[in-house]
Design a protein that fits this description.
The complex is a heterodimer of chains A (107) and B (219).
Chain A: E1 10-19, H1 20-40, E2 44-52, E3 58-67, H2 70-77, H3 83-95, E4 98-104
Antiparallel strand pairs in A: 1-3, 1-4, 2-3
Chain B: E1 6-15, H1 21-29, E2 38-45, E3 61-68, H2 75-79, E4 91-105, E5 113-120, H3 128-144, E6 151-157, E7 164-170, H4 173-182, H5 184-190, E8 208-214
Antiparallel strand pairs in B: 1-3, 1-4, 2-3, 4-6, 5-7, 5-8, 6-7
Helix pairs in contact in B: 3-5
The chains are: A alpha+beta (107), B alpha+beta (219).
Chain lengths: 107, 219
């Protein structure tokens, strides 16, 4: 892993496994409750997808975000302890069957 | 000079508003050898840009001590020693800790240099394998980030607000503000242990990200 380009794009990928019956409502809440704050922190929504989950009657929702570089990423991290962010993920974790977040660089 | 074993301690000192931090730091450095058991005393005044709890920000001081291994003192005791009379009323201990190094490397670096100290607290109850992986990822950073010169990763002895000290030296501030912060290994891998939005993160929010310029190597 090399490269210290300040303009290297940062991709943030959330994978949330939800009961199939809950997925649409969670996505709607994500747009209404989480996305505005994320965008205020510098995130740009790059896509929302869903796919098969390992769990029966569940779906994996994939939410992809972009930031223009590592400095913007660390600026966004300065607000990641906000109570609203914590509350969002606590509510999500109460519903989700599994969840991960990966921070990715171009290979 | 003796080869008796030594141990390291570190304190962050808040400097009283009517005192010059550079003068206080000079007095701290001058304590080396004047107090029994104090082998070395390094002090650096925090630069603008540090991120730390109240009283530990810019203008506060990181005080690095090397003591005889069996010395009973902690940094606060030494400040109260009569030999340190020039420091009376000048500074207070915001935090003090003993260091139990678990990994590190020494690499000569021309003076002046920058030493960065990150004090952090791992959440209680973190699984041992997660703690090991976290420490391993931190200790791997110098393999990727070429601007890191000497470094030490330590567990903090005793109980207190911090559990780990992650210290590095750089030839210049650019090495810390540039490559260290920009390298993908930092923001894709190491930072996940700190990011509260990542399930499985292990580090508590309160950090002390401290850095100062030193006339010579500390680590």
């Amino acid at each position: 892993m090399t490269g210290t380009d300040p303009n290297l794009p940062v991709t943030v990928v959330d994978r949330v496994t939800l009961p199939r019956a809950e997925a649409d409502a969670w996505i709607a809440r994500m747009h209404g409750e989480y996305r505005p704050g994320a965008e205020a922190r510098g995130y740009t929504l790059a896509g929302v997808r869903q796919t098969r989950a390992e769990h029966r009657h569940a779906v994996e929702v994939v939410v992809e975000w972009r930031l223009p570089g590592p400095r913007a990423f660390f600026r966004s991290r300065a607000a990641s302890h906000d109570a609203a962010v914590s509350a969002w993920w606590a509510a999500t974790d109460a519903l989700a069957l599994a969840r991960s977040r990966s921070i990715e660089s171009p290979a | 000079m003796t080869d008796a074993p030594t141990r390291r301690a570190l304190a962050v000192l808040s400097v009283e508003p009517d005192r010059d931090p550079d003068v206080v730091a000079a007095h701290l450095r001058a304590l080396a050898g004047t107090i029994p058991d104090l082998r070395a005393s390094h002090a650096g005044v925090h630069l603008a840009g540090v991120v730390a709890p109240a009283g530990m920000g810019a203008g506060a001081i990181t005080w690095d001590l090397v003591l005889d291994a069996d010395a009973p003192h902690n940094p606060g005791d030494l400040l109260a020693d009569p030999v340190a009379h020039r420091l009376a009323g000048a500074a207070t201990v915001a935090v003090e800790l003993g260091l139990d190094p678990i990994a590190g490397r020494r690499m000569p670096t021309p003076a002046p240099l920058v030493k960065r100290t990150l004090l952090l607290r791992v959440h209680p109850g973190v699984a041992p394998d997660a703690l090991t992986r976290f420490e391993s990822d931190l200790a791997e950073m110098p393999e990727h980030i070429g601007t890191i010169r000497s470094w030490v990763l330590s567990r903090v002895t005793g109980t207190g607000r911090f559990t780990h000290a992650w210290e590095q030296e750089y030839a210049s501030l650019d090495g810390l503000a540039g490559e260290y912060m920009l390298h993908p290994f930092h923001w894709t891998t190491v930072d996940a242990w700190f990011d509260p939005e990542v399930p499985g993160h292990v580090v508590a929010p309160e950090l002390a990200h401290l850095f100062a310029i030193y006339a010579g190597s500390v680590l």
